[in-house]
Amino acid sequence: MKEHNITAPKAIDQYIQNGIHKGKQYKKRKRQGYTSMIATLGLALLLVTCIKVSPAFANAVRDIPGLSAIVELIEGDKGLEDAVENDFIHQINSSDIHSEITFSIDHIIVDQARMILFYSIKTEREHNFLFLKDLELFGDGEPLMASISYGAPKESVDLQKNKQMNGKIVATFSDQIDVPDELTVSTQFKARTIQNKIPDQGSILDAAWKVKFAINDEWYKNTREEIAIDKEVKIDGQTMHFEKAVIDPTLTAIYVKFDPQNEMQLFTFDDLKIVDDSGEVWSPPDGLVSTGSDDKFILYYESPHFRTPKELYLKGSSIRAIDEDEQTIVVDLTNKKLTKAPSDGRIQLKDLQVVGDRVELEFAVKVEPQDEYHIYEIFNQQPINLDSSVQHGRTLKTWQKPEENKVVHKFSINNPDRKTKIVLELKDYPSRLVEPFKIQVK
Q1: What Cα–Cα distance (Å) separates residue 385 from each residue in 87, 420, 425?
Q2: Looking at the whole model, is its pTM more than 0.85?
Q3: What DSSP character marks residue 59?
Q4: Which of 171, 228, 244, 426 has the fewest CB atoms lying closer than 10 Å?
């Protein structure tokens, strides 16, 4: 029996600076099933929420030297809270100093899925705000194959009013990548006098800070649990296969594959979650949803590792989708109109400006009331009909008009061949298939 009682995704703190680390990039999928919300270079979407740290956890670590600052940095992730409470966090205390600025890696939480580096910054100069710039991670001397995120909004502290600023760097490892024995964190700094003000771009400091330290494999040895699921789910005749679950202390990964015979292009589950035998819900960690290629991808959730539940279930009811033959839209640059778009009329071309080989497009996309706090990334930024070896498109701005139930996207596209049309592919879309399901994982 179908029902329409869907829970909208919670708003999350999006990181200001994020990207896939050079060394390995996830292959762009021909069929867009899922994308990583932390892996789109140049896109900075900011959704501010409250810190959801439990009082019990806060009380447990408040008086422990060096750990009180971590309370506000793990953002209510139950798996990370459990990791700290169970001493699955290790002191590093390694620093580098240039220009009277001290950059320190203070603590680390690490397993085979990801690592969270807790850092601090101090300055003896008159810098107000210092931000990490062009951060790179090297494992055993090579670029780390991981998705790297850093620079959350709360990591903006006036260093003339506070002794130091604390922040975190999160590296989610590519599948089947070993944890390095030695890590080097390399970064520059951008100095600003005003907090997060676009007109004050700040200045990049000349020096490069490098912090190197060893990672002991005893910290995470024998902590991974792999569970075969091997179950199919059908929603409105569209088939998806849940292959396995991999549970690490910091993260749970669910491996999913869409059936290539599906007649519709499936995008993203609206409300898929993990529930244990006590009714505890394990949600996606803030800032991280999925990675993958083609129609195989990995969904990420908080980890129940330290709770050792006897049973785990996957529960969901809704997935965003569109007919495959409606997955592309065509923009006529000469007549400034859409000549192909989804038949439901959700997408409107609001503005089109052509200046030389630059094209600026502004779209308005009608969304459902449940999407009020969700910023859709509707299109792949790379046009289908332009040279795929060069990045042609970039998002200039994305914002929401809740009073109109619309999301507005503004793109800039480099069109050196002066083509008269631009073909874009949908990577997400606010139309849904609804059918509740529940499968047992453990």
Answers
A1: 53, 11, 10
A2: no
A3: H
A4: 228
